[in-house]
Each structure stands twice: as structure tokens, then as C-alpha cells.
TrEMBL record:
Keyword match Cytoplasm: no
Pfam families: Flavodoxin_2
Binding sites annotated in the UniProt record for FMN: S9, S15, V16, S17, M93, Y94, N95, F96, S137, R138, G139, G140
Enzyme class at the top of the EC tree: oxidoreductase
Protein's name according to its UniProt entry: FMN dependent NADH:quinone oxidoreductase
PANTHER family: FMN-DEPENDENT NADH-AZOREDUCTASE 1, FMN-DEPENDENT NADH:QUINONE OXIDOREDUCTASE
Cofactor binding annotation: Binds 1 FMN per subunit.
Domain Flavodoxin-like fold: 1-196
Necessary cofactors: FMN
Lineage: Bacteria, Pseudomonadati, Pseudomonadota, Alphaproteobacteria, Hyphomicrobiales
Length: 202
């Protein structure tokens, strides 16, 4: 079994999402001694954002010399994802959505013919055999029924993205209200870490 661990927070050791994603991985590693874990920090080794040249290369054009290394890196990222059985992602909310580093990674794994395809019945996801667990952290409260729910484009976006490629039930562990105050932060982190520790490891 292979697990791919992705972090995207720019806060390093001060990151809540990193702390929770690490706890998820630890839970799964302890319960599956033979688990093979690979790790990618999207802030230490960022991927370039897509450009017209990327798209042209994807359509068969010869890549520009300066683009070849990044295209190769994107291919490695896609292969890492395809080879994994479980994917654990640390995803903080930045300005109501995912970090741009994580978006660049998503742009490299949503590839027609690899993780989805178009057919007579519409889009078919090709990655439905994977388990995806996302550790999210949000400064405020954005759950259903809250005044700010309409501004939540982190969990809702990721649910749609992974559903698009066939992963219909991604799992989320959330630490909410971490910027409201120290007590809220402590409570949110403790709750998320407990959820990580109680996670179904099967």
C-alpha cells in the first residue's frame, strides 16, 4: 500500500493543517506497518502555474527549453498520484479557497485520459480507487448554516475536484476558528487531532 502525503501551507512549523495532516499519516502508518509513505511539500518544491506554453505542450507542441524541467516535474507529480492508494492533503484556507501552490498541483493531476475522460455519457472519473483524506484549517467558521458558508470555497472546491476524477467520498478533518482567539484555536486543533487519531485506518 502506498500513501502520498501533500502539504501546502506556507507557515511551516506554525501550520495547523500540517500538524493535522501529519497526525493523519501517523495514524495510518501505525495501523499499517507495511505502508509506504512519500511526501511532497508544495511550498518547498513549488510547481509553476499553468501557462499557454504548458497547454500547447499538452497538445503536442515541442516544449520551450525553459519549460521542459517543469513539465517533467508535473509528470512526476501525476505519476506519484496515480501510484498512490491513499492521499493525505494538508489544505489551509487562504482568502476563502485553497493555496495557489495546491491549485498548481491539482492542475497537474487533472489530466484527460489519466484521471478522467470524456465519453458519450459525459465525464468519467478514472481515479475512484483511491482514498483521499484532507486536513483543512480555516480562520473563521464556514460550516453549513453559518453566515459565512457562502464564502467557503476550500472544502466545497476539493469535494468537487476529487468527485470529478471519481473519488466520490473524500474525507475531511477540519480545524475551524483558529484565528478567532487562542481558546478557539486550542479547541479546534485538539478536536482535529482527536479526529485524526480516531480515523478509520482500514
Amino acid at each position: 500500500m502506498k500513501l502520498l502525503h501533500i502539504d501546502s501551507s506556507v507557515l511551516g512549523p506554525h501550520s495547523v493543517s500540517r500538524q493535522v495532516s501529519a497526525a493523519i499519516v501517523e495514524r495510518l502508518r501505525n495501523s499499517n506497518p507495511g505502508l509506504e509513505v512519500s511526501y511532497r511539500d508544495l511550498t518547498l518544491t513549488p510547481l509553476a502555474h499553468l501557462s499557454g506554453s504548458h497547454l500547447a505542450a499538452g497538445q503536442g507542441a515541442t516544449p520551450e527549453a525553459g519549460l521542459q524541467a517543469d513539465i517533467a516535474a508535473g509528470q512526476i507529480v501525476l505519476e506519484e498520484f496515480l501510484a498512490s492508494d491513499t492521499v493525505v492533503i494538508g489544505a489551509p484556507m487562504y482568502n476563502f479557497t485553497i493555496p495557489s501552490q495546491l491549485k498548481a498541483w491539482i492542475d497537474r493531476i487533472l489530466v484527460a485520459g489519466k484521471t478522467f475522460k470524456y465519453g458519450a455519457q459525459g465525464v468519467e472519473g478514472l481515479a475512484g480507487n483511491k482514498r483521499v483524506i484532507v486536513a483543512i484549517s480555516r480562520g473563521g467558521f464556514y460550516g453549513p448554516g453559518t453566515p459565512a458558508a457562502v464564502g467557503e470555497h476550500l472544502e466545497t472546491y476539493l469535494r468537487w475536484v476529487f468527485g470529478f476524477i471519481g473519488i466520490k467520498n473524500p474525507e475531511f478533518i477540519s480545524a475551524d476558528g483558529i484565528q478567532v482567539g487562542p481558546e478557539h484555536r486550542e479547541k479546534a486543533v485538539a478536536g482535529a487531532l482527536k479526529a485524526a487519531g480516531d480515523l478509520n485506518a482500514a
